[in-house]
Structures are given as C-alpha cells and as structure tokens.
Amino acid sequence: MHFAIPKWAAPVLGVSLVAVALGAMAAEPIKIGVSGPFTGGSSPMGLSMRDGVRLATEEINKAGGVLGRKIQLIERDDEAKNERGVQVTQELISREKVVADVGFINTGVALASQRFYEEAKIPVINNVATGSLITKQFLPPEYKDNYVFRTSANDGIQSHMIVEEAIIKRKFTKVAILADSTNYGQLGREDLEKALAARGIKPVAVEKFNIKDTDMTAQLLRAKEAGAQAILTYGIGPELAQIANGMAKLGWKVPMIGSWTLSMANFIDNAGANSNGARMPQTFIQEPNTPKRKAFIDAYVKAYHPANGRIPSPVSAAQGYDSMYLLAAAIKQAGTTDGPAIRAALEDLKQPVEGVVTNYNKPYSHDNHEAITANIPVMGEVKDGHVVYAYEEDRKNPFHTR
Amino acid sequence: MDILMQLLMSGIALGMIYAVIAFGYQSTFATSGTLNFGQGEALMLGAMVGLSFNGDVLGGPYTNYWLMIPLVLLFGALQGMVVEFVGVRPAIKSKSEFGWIMSTIALGIIFRNVAENIWGRDDMPFPSPLPTAPIHIFGANVLPMELMVVVGALLMMLLVELFNRRSIYGKAVVATSSDRDAAGLMGINTGLVITFSYALSSMSAAFAGVLIAPITLTGASMGAVLGLKAFAVAIIGGLTSGLGVIVGGILLGIAETTTGFYLSTGYKDVPGLVLLLLVLAIKPSGLFGKTTIKKV
C-alpha cells in the first residue's frame, strides 16, 4: 500500500511532534480509563457513574492532582455489549495506555473484558457491576495476583438482604421470583434461591421474562395462583416497570422486593404510581444526611443539572465517585503509576479514605477485593418518584463502616 | 375460569397489537409484492413523533392525544413515501427480486439510529389519554387503553376496506393488487398506487405506534421485537387477508399467554413459532391467504 503525503504535511507533522514532546516534559497527565454503557437501557447507571467519576476527578485535580500530575479520564462507551466491552478494553490498554480503569456496569461485560486488565497487570475497580463471580475470576493459585477490585454490593449480599427483608422482617412465607433471562437475572435468581434455601424456604413460583416483553400476565398469574405474598425481582428498569404495571392491571398488589435496579429512574418513571413501595438494597440514597453526602449531592446537581434534581442512579454516582478517590489514594501511596504497585497499594491502604458510601479503612487486602460488606447497604423504598429510606432508623443512622 | 378468561383477554389485547402492525405488511404486499421490513421502525417513529407532540420529551406537550393523531398519520404517510421512493421503487424498476429486502432493512436501521440520536436510547412512558385503572369484563381485568387498541385497530381496517370497495381510488388499488400489468394497461397509474400503498402501510404503523405506546413503553428499540412478531402474524394469517391478520394475531397472543401460564414462562414464545412452522409447512399462503400460482 502506498500513501501519498502532501508537501505541507511534513512541517505540520514535525511541529506537532515537537509539541507532543514538550507536553510530555511538562508533567504528563495520568490516564485513567472509564468504561460503561453510556447509551441503551443501562445508560442511567453508566452516565451517573461517569459523572460521579468526573466529579471526583475534578476535585482531585483542583487540589493539585496526584504525584504532581493531573488525572485525565479516557471515557469509552461499552454499550452494555460483551464484544464492545472487550474492544474498548483493548483500546484503553494498548492505544491509550491507561494506568488503571474504573467502570463496568453490566456483569456480563465485566466478566468478558477484565481478563485483559488482569493479563496486562492493570488494576480495575468495578464500581457498579454486582455479579458474585466478578472479583473471583482470577484467584490464586492459578493467578498469583488479582487485579479486579469492587466498590459495589455484590449479588450475594443483595440477595441475602432481599430474603431477610421478605422472610424475617415482613414475615412472608410464600414468595415468587421473577427474573429476566439475561446473565444478570439468572445468576441473581440462583443467588436468591440459595438465600431462600438457607432459611428453609422454597419459592412458590420461579418465572422468567425476556428483555422487551410487554405483557407479564402469565408470569404474574402463576405467582398469584401459587399464593405468593411478595414478588422478588432480578431484572432491569423497563421490564420491572411492566411487572409493576401488570400487577396494577390484574388488580393484585403484593410488595415488590428486588435487586438494587428497582431504584433505576426508568423503572420509577415508567411504572409511575405503581412503583410506590418497591424495596431494594442501596449503598447510597440521595439524602444529605452526612456533610460529605450533602457536599456530593450539591456538587452533582450543580454540575450536571439532573431533571428535577434527581440523580438518575444515585448508587452508581456515589460508587463511581468513591472508586476514583480510592484509586487516587492508591496511586499516591504507591508513588508511581506502575500497575503492580498500585494493586499492592490498594490491597494495603495506609490512610483511610473518606467516601460518600462509607469510610474506607483498609477496604481491600490481598485476598479480599470487596470494599462493601454486608452491613453497609440499607433498604431503600420508592416513594412518589424518589428512592427514600425504608426504615427510619437507617435514615437517622445511615453511615456504616466495615 | 377467571384465570382462563384473564389469559384470553390479555392474549387478545396482545394479539391485536400484533395484528395492527401486521396489517401494514399486507397493504404493500397486495399492490407491489414487496414488504417493508422497517415496519417496526415505522411504528417506533410514529410513537416517538406522537410523544414529541403529546409528551414533554422535546419541550412539549404541544397538543393533546387526540389532536396529535392526525399529525402522526400525516408523518407516517410521508415516511412511507420516502421508503417507497428510496428503497422500493429502484428495485421494482430494475425487476430485482431481493433488492427491496435489503434496502427496507437498511432504511429501518437508519431510522432507528436517527431516532436514537434525537430522542435518546432510553424507554420512556407515554401519557395515557384514558384512565389507567382496569375495568372488569367477564371476570377479567382489562385496561381501557387495551380496549382502545382493539377498537382502533378494527376501525382502521374497516375504513381501509370501505375505501377499497367504495371509492374509485380504492378500486384502482384493488385492481393493482389483483393484476398489476392488466391494471397498468387499463390506464391505472400503478406506480402511484404502489406509492400510496406504502404511505398507507407506514401510516397504519404510525397509528399503531401511538395506539400501543401507552401500554408498551416508548423508545427507539420498541419496534424490533414487535415488528418481528407482527411479521410472524402476517405469515400465519396470510399476507393477502385482512381477516387473517386479526385471527393470526389473536392466535399468537393467546398462545403466548396461555403457554406462559399453563406450561412455563420460559417457553412462552415457542408455540407461536411452532404454529408459524406448521402453517408454512401445510398452507404456505397462510390460514386465510389465497393460494397463488406463480407462472414461470
């Protein structure tokens, strides 16, 4: 192949090369990847996460950056598709040469993509994806070190909380599970069934639905006929809304308790009044009940002007924000942008990191890469278009540390 | 008994949604022997344009639901003409057997991408013009909007049927569908009739869009699954029969809800597809379709 280079190109190229070289000498920024779905059904989570990360980065840069260098975010849309996730991950590693990555909303995308970070010895913090397997993909002895960390509450913790809410606190004995047919829904259903079995309970109905299903009559009637007193869900916003609307149509109203996605704006908006009362585990609820949280919410609303002052996915925004601070603390402690050194620093953070979700005091160790423990999330409830605390005592005493 | 009634009612409501979309496949097939594979996208565009007038996505609401309908119909007709002009006419002119398949699919993808850029990719609620509380019919719960889908779909088909039988223009359409070459020799401008049938087809899809949007959700990807199911309905019922799409739609709708309940919700789409395979194997022109002999 032969490319004809126009005559004017040579000097232009020369000048820009010099400019690049000069730029490199004046404290080159630290590149950090941000990957998530910024379009599609999961985009409320992806965009809130990205904005949380941006907010933290701005604050860090304003305070002088890390190691005397600014942080530069390289944002990539994985479209919630596994193959696209793999593609942007490889681009971030080989072309952009990021020193670390924060992101991943969808469990399937995370499981498909993070292998490349592991191989390149680049730390990645999952700040929204919840699949239990995510932090357990690369364990010793097969892999010496695990480069995958997490700042979200995994499905094991969530399914346990859902079952505790239904069985212990509200004393239901007959529950039905409705889960979507994706990886997320079916892995979550397994976790729910396990958590129920641990309490000696078998669900009276276990039903499946597809993404984009518009009619939930059959699933709901089966649950109703089996005598279900509550519906436990694992799915995403739009279809969860069809379940809530379907219940209203059948004139059958039982509590909906499910994974944290019941707090998604596209569930609450599409189900309207039918979403009232739905309960889900939350690591963060948009309520300014600590000074740090107030500052975070005010800054977010001021910077991104969400509709009606409501963050589309508060949990994703808060976890995204915290993941950036954890990463910055680790880079600072490592004193270098070398991957293995950052990983080692994350696993042994000397200074506690003050976060929005919790205060991170030694959040990780070599064998534990989960920052969120079972005592941190609280139960949220949908009330008139907003997610609020389900229990008054949680609202008054909202801040838990591991 | 109540359960069965509820399943039947929900199945009929779902089936009429499929039928009203499938109706659009018919009108173009009758006149030109071609189909618009972007029918699901025409439906989506209708719903999105309707939501722009009627909802607050683009700074509205500008009109109420009922005033919005004629505007959406007009938009649908124009959109159909564009599809015919860009995608179908060149293929018919060059006597290409398959060109129109690719070009209508391509246009569908383009329309979806445009919609994603204008309205975003998230699903949105469509304000319902009727109360959302269910009403009781024969021991089953039905939404007023579901009744409106049934009534609206039947009304639309009736009007088209009346137009075809009573007006001189309608007779030109009927003549073109029974024999395009002979109609051309009789002085009917068959090209214009085909353009008209595409306008009618997209118009009915756009109408279906605003009719079903308050029940389903509204978003750039809403047409994909519905368009495909409606295509199955058009094949089951027969591409040449108006009665066929209604019966086919109701059959598929009831098959989905009853299998979901009595067998397993994991298998609810299977019987409809089995039905499709059976029809194709036993009566390829559809349950109500006329068998046509293609002379070669």
Brief digest:
The complex is a heterodimer of chains A (402) and B (296). Chain A is built from 13 helices and 14 strands.
Can you tag this structure with a few keywords?
heterodimer, A: 402 residues, alpha/beta, Rossmann fold, five-stranded parallel sheet, four-stranded parallel sheet, 15% strand, B: 296 residues, mainly alpha, two-stranded antiparallel ribbon, 11 helices, 2 strands, 2% strand
Mean pLDDT of chain A: 90
| Quantity of strands of chain B, as a count | 2
**What is the CATH superfamily label of the largest domain in chain A?**
Response regulator
Alpha-beta classification of chain A? alpha/beta
Strand portion of chain A = 15-25%
Taken in chain order, the helices and strands of chain A follow as HEHEHEHEEHEHEHEHEHEHHHEEEEH
Largest sheet of chain B: 2 strands, antiparallel
**Rough shape of chain B?**
globular
SSE sequence of chain B, one letter per element: HHHHEEHHHHHHH
CATH topology of the largest domain in chain A: Rossmann fold
Sheet with the most strands: spatial strand order of chain B: 1-2
Given the structure, what is the number of helices of chain A?
Answer: 13
How many strands of chain A?
Answer: 14
- Spatial separation of the terminal alpha carbons of chain A: 60 Å
CATH hierarchy: architecture of the largest domain in chain A = 3-Layer(aba) Sandwich
Radius of gyration of chain A over alpha carbons? 22 Å
| Span between termini of chain B | 53 Å
Mean pLDDT, all residues of chain B: 87
How many individual helices of chain B?
11
Number of domains of chain A: 2
Which CATH class of the largest domain in chain A? Alpha Beta
